[in-house]
Amino acid sequence: MYRKILVALDTSASDQVLLPAITQLASLMHSELLLVHVADGWAARNFDQLKLAESEEMRQDLAYLESTAAKLRASSGLTVRFRLVLGEPPDQLLKVAAEENIDLIALASHGHRLLGDIIHGSTIDAVRHKATVPLFVVPPKRTP
Question: Which CATH superfamily is domain 4-133 in?
């Protein structure tokens, strides 16, 4: 059913909530995981236009993806690939989903409410309005 799952990572603590949940689903479905992080800092957003060199943030993001993919491969036995893309997160996630023929997009919510979404934007909201495949959304871990 879900052969290829795009897992949107943001290099925050929310990844640690999302990854176990989606890995369990992928194991049950014998799915391939594609870990995607969208670098959206100034250098990333202007990389092609200004012919910039890779930023330290972009190098750290790539190292994070490599490390996370290696850990998932070792612990789950799943096929895990990764991509670092540059630009606006919702646009880039949807673009990669189309390019890779993704069957499911997995994201972690951050629990923002109105004001937080206005300030930080809402990747999930933007993706859900334009996605042509189902979304798997994991809520933030709440402490009592």
Answer: HUPs (3.40.50.620)
